[in-house]
Amino acid sequence: MNAEPADQIRLLDVQDLDTRLTQLAHKRKTLPEHEELQRLEADLAQLRDLLVAAQTEESDTAREQTKAEQDVDQVRQRAARDQQRMDSGAVSNPKDLESLQSEIAALGKRQADLEEVVLEIMERHESAQERAAELAERVEAVHARNEAATARRDETLGQIDSEAASVRREREAQAHALPAELLKLYDKIREREGGIGAAKLYQRRCEGCRLELNITELNDVREAPADAVLRCENCRRILVRTPESGL
What is the three-class DSSP state of 218? Predict the structure, then answer.
């Protein structure tokens, strides 16, 4: 294949633009914010689960406390009624009076036991409240960090995408000026060789595979017509001659 030396030089410009697009795509994929957001979202999910559990315990202990306090109130009311009956003199039979006194004493003990239960539930409820409040603060803090990281990521992605769009436009303009067959060959090689389809011959070395040409290869290059499209014998990429080739 033959192509004007100027077109071959322009092919290197297209290669530089393609390389930049590859770099931008890699940068877009490997932004540190991606990993940071994954970590923050995992932390946030875990904290929210813990918060739900703490809030559930808070709600459950609140109901337990209400029920226990109602039980205490019922016992207190019953003891008060019995005490009122005894104080009113309505019970005069010694046996009935003794039974009433025993019931009042039993109710007093029952009330004391229930009040101990209320205190224990109150302690658990307060602990659950504190735990829920602490977790809510941590959720809010991690959420704020998540939003900040998302904003940084989106801003950086916007910059990358804007530059990539500009590079693509320039690449399209440069490629449009190249002979179709040369561009087709370049694209085919670039796809096969990891994104590098054309390389400069610099100081007798192929910039594609970084290997120096031997004397026989150099002589072949020297003898080749200026418009000949050369290929590196090692990596088979298009080898473009420049004034810096060292020939």
Answer: helix
